Each structure stands twice: as structure tokens, then as C-alpha cells.
Amino acid sequence: MAGHVQILSPAQDEALLREAVSVGSRASNRAWHFEAGSRWRKRHGMVTPRWLRWVLLRMQENNMAQVFIIGAAGKVGRHLVKQLADRRHRVLALHRRAGQGAELGALGATPVTGDLTAIDVGALAGQMAGSDVAVFTAGAGGAGVEVTNAIDGRGLELAVDAARQAGVRRFLLVSAFPEAGRNKAMGEGFENYMTVKKRADVYLAATDLDWVILRPGTLNDAPGTGRIAAGPAIAYGDIPRADVAATLVALVEHPEVRRAIIELTEGGQPVGEVIARLARP
Ligand SMILES: NC(=O)c1ccc[n+]([C@@H]2O[C@H](COP(=O)([O-])OP(=O)(O)OC[C@H]3O[C@@H](n4cnc5c(N)ncnc54)[C@H](OP(=O)(O)O)[C@@H]3O)[C@@H](O)[C@H]2O)c1
């Protein structure tokens, strides 16, 4: 044992404990690390680098979430699957077409089949059971009023009801930026899309879930920069889909951000810093 233990000054010991405690992103984890650190100290006299390595590993395990993605085969969805899997979260990827499952599996997800227009609340709840977070990033993709009403509208309500039935407390919704298409004569389909998106926000916000409504500006497929602007009210702009996904990952990892509406565009601040700032009371 003595061979593994590096003797530290009381100041180094204190600094290590503080570092280990601060890396836990969930408040409960921070409390747990502090407890574990105090117990270790009692037994060994002080915190050691070996303990810090052990605690970092445990912390990684503790912070891993199971995330159920609705619309996982979409453009934002695929970025999200990959980014979550790369960070060792467990991902269940709802998709509707044969052939999408293999690709989602290769990105690191467990594929789950289901069509929002055919599945019922109970069946979807059964698929979601055991997940920590549900993310809704499905959409009709401009396929017309009826499909928009069915997917972005009723599909969202079905997913919210299923999450509540399954006991999935946290629900992240990819919504739309209120200024999108303003003064652009976008037509009846777009007007309906914005109305349905707002109705979906209202439906989710009226629940007792730990919801976050994310309202990105106009999406593009430029490479992600890892930098964004986000807040309750910001100026309208564009954003790469990869950065929307990175923001969703940060929201998965910051459950303290809850019951919040967040507008999102490209910007100059690192995603993690912006979301951590929103997490502060
Ligand atoms: N475009 C913009 O500028 C913009 C701006 C703000 C917000 N948004 C919103 O951002 C979200 C993601 O956008 P995106 O570009 O990633 O969209 P996308 O590529 O069109 O992805 C949408 C996904 O929803 C799936 N879907 C559609 N109908 C379904 C059904 N009946 N059952 C199950 N899944 C179904 C689609 O499945 P298939 O792959 O089988 O078609 C697709 O994978 C959407 O909600 C969109 O409204 C878009």
C-alpha cells in the first residue's frame, strides 16, 4: 500500500479533494465525492492521487446518462447520437425506416424502431423505460401541413405523454427560433410549422417534467465550431446542426438547467461554458 501512496502536503491534499469534488457535474455526485473523500481521509490520513483517479472513473460512470432520441436518424439526430456515444452515454435511437438501424448502430447507439404516426403511448413508454433523458428532434422536414401536424405536433405530444408514463423525468425539445422566416413571405406551410412548434412548446412547458425547450436559429450543415450564443433572448442567426447537437449533449450533462427556454445560434463562446453559465441560479 505504502508504495502507491504519494505523501502530500495538507495544501495539496486539500486541492486534490476540491478538484475531485468540483468535476462532478451533478450536485448529488459532488456531495457523494465529498463523502467518499472524507471517508478515504479518515482511513488513510489524506486524499491521494490514486484516490483521485478512482473517483474520476466512478464519476464518469455516475455521470453517464441513458438518452432516448426521437428523430435519431435525422441530421441533428445523427450528430447527437455520435457525440453522446463518443462521451460514453448510452443512446437509444428511435427511427422508422429499415436500413437506418445499422447506421445508427455503427454510430454507437442501440437502434429502436418506431413510427410516431403508428405507435401508441404505452408502446413508446415501454421503449423509453429506464432512460434518464428523452430528446425530441423529429420533424416533418417541410413535408406539408398534415405531416407537420402529425410529427412536430401530435408526435411531440405522444412522446411527452410516453416520457411521463415511463418515468423519464428530463425532456429536451428541439423547437424553432421565434424570428425564423420573419418578413420573408414564407407561405402557409411555414406559418403552420411555426404555430405547431409553439403549440408543442406550450404542451411540454405545461407538464411537470424537467423540460428544456431549445430554439435554434436556421440550421446548416457547416462543420461544428463548438462555439455558440445561447440564452433566454438573443439575436436571431444561423447555427450548424453539429453545434445544436453539442448543445444538447451539454444539456444532458447539466441537469441543473431545467424548465428553461433557450434560444441558440452560432456564436463565440464554448458550448460547455455557456450551458454551465445557464446552470447557475
Ligand atoms: N431546418 C431548420 O432551419 C430548423 C430550425 C430550427 C429547428 N428545426 C427543427 O430541428 C429538428 C431537427 O432538424 P433536422 O434538420 O435534423 O431534421 P431532419 O433531418 O428532417 O430529421 C427529422 C427526423 O424525424 C424523423 N421522423 C419524421 N417523421 C417520423 C415519424 N413518423 N416517426 C419517427 N420519426 C420520424 C425523420 O425520419 P426519416 O429519417 O425516416 O425521414 C428524421 O430522421 C426538427 O424538429 C426541426 O423542425 C429546424
* Ligand kinds: NADP nicotinamide-adenine-dinucleotide phosphate
Overall average residue pLDDT? 88
- Element string (H = helix, E = strand): HHHEHEHEHEHEHEEEEHEEH
The total domain count is 2
Order the strands across the largest sheet as they lie in space.
Answer: 3-2-1-4-5-6-10-8-11
CATH class wording of the largest domain: Alpha Beta
Helices and strands in order:
Layout (H helix, E strand, L loop, with lengths): L9 H14 L3 H18 L4 H15 L2 E5 L4 H12 L3 E6 L4 H8 L2 E4 L7 H8 L4 E4 L8 H22 L3 E5 L13 H18 L4 E7 L1 E3 L6 E5 L6 E3 H13 L6 E7 L2 E2 H9 L2
Parallel strand pairs: 1-2, 1-4, 2-3, 4-5, 5-6, 6-10, 7-9
Antiparallel strand pairs: 8-10, 8-11
Helix pairs in contact: 1-2, 1-3, 2-3, 4-9, 6-7, 7-8, 9-10
This protein binds NADP nicotinamide-adenine-dinucleotide phosphate.
What are the main properties of this structure?
Rossmann fold, binds NADP nicotinamide-adenine-dinucleotide phosphate, 281 residues, single chain, two-stranded parallel ribbon, 10 helices, nine-stranded mixed beta sheet, alpha/beta
